[in-house]
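Hi V.,

Quick status before I head out on leave. The structure for the redesign project is tokenized and pasted below; the design run finished overnight.
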């Protein structure tokens, strides 16, 4: 789903915020890591069994709706089964007889949104859903004086990519005025930001980890630039490189035609160029 699609869901009163815990610190030897295990177990459960009675909050454009915590997932309500809607915290949970929550007469998200606007509701609403992995469409961090929520959500974006192979777009949510703003710097800006947060000791470490029943993973966010540089360069860059080397080879061939010399140097350069070209095309 594109960023425009997420904004469209928001505008149509169909975007849910799933608040998540700020990652704790895991220590392995002398190394600390931001632990996203709680996030990973939830995503793993959504993939395998499906999540039931998940507590979320409907974000209503231009309305001051708080979220339960500062960071988390954004969920497409069209991809979820919505079964309980309340205009405030309903105390939902599991009891001896199954799901329990405060009774409510709200039957749809559009009804909740309309009530929020008409009555100027300012409490955190609660929407309970059953959901699978395809419902996750983005990540949010609440606007705050501190840069920590931004740092944590960038780490969360990378954690989620490691677990699923997907990169979720990030948004900054301002609960004071009910706005959602895209926050997606390029890779260099991201790594520079995380490095700066670590240097200023606002982040303990750039290392990320998570554990589920299926896997355990540790990786360093700041290793990404090196990984990117190790990839094969774009085809346009490869062609330019080969052309430049071919020009040098031809120049060398002209010089080698001087009396008493052979064309061995020029031939060697041309062979090397053809070998490089073959590798690039292979």
């Amino acid at each position: 789903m594109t960023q425009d699609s997420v904004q469209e869901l928001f505008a149509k009163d169909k975007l849910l915020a799933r608040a998540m815990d700020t990652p704790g610190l895991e220590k392995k030897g002398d190394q600390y890591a931001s632990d996203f295990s709680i996030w990973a177990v939830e995503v793993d459960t959504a993939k395998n069994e499906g999540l039931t009675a998940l507590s979320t909050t409907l974000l209503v454009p231009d309305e001051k709706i708080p979220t339960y915590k500062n960071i988390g997932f954004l969920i497409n309500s069209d991809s979820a089964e919505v079964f309980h809607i309340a205009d405030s915290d309903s105390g939902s949970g599991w009891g001896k007889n199954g799901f329990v929550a405060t009774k409510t007469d709200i039957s749809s998200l559009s009804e909740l949104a309309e009530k929020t606007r008409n009555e100027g509701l300012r409490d955190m609403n609660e929407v309970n859903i059953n959901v699978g992995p395809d419902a996750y469409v983005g990540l949010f961090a609440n606007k705050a004086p501190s840069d920590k929520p931004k740092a944590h959500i960038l780490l969360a974006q990378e954690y989620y990519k490691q677990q699923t192979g997907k990169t979720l777009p990030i948004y900054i949510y301002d609960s004071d005025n009910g706005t959602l703003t895209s926050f997606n710097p390029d890779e260099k800006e991201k790594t520079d930001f995380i490095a700066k947060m670590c240097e200023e000791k606002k982040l303990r470490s750039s290392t990320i980890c998570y554990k589920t029943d299926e896997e355990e993973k540790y990786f360093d966010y700041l290793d990404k630039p090196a990984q990117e540089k190790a990839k094969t360069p774009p085809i346009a860059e490869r062609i330019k490189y080969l052309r430049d080397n071919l020009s040098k080879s031809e120049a060398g061939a002209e010089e080698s035609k001087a009396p008493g010399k052979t064309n061995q140097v020029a031939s060697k350069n041309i062979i090397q160029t053809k070998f490089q070209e073959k590798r690039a095309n292979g």
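Above is the designed sequence. The CA atoms of residues 11 and 130 lie 22 Å apart.

G. will cover questions while I'm gone.

Best,
W.
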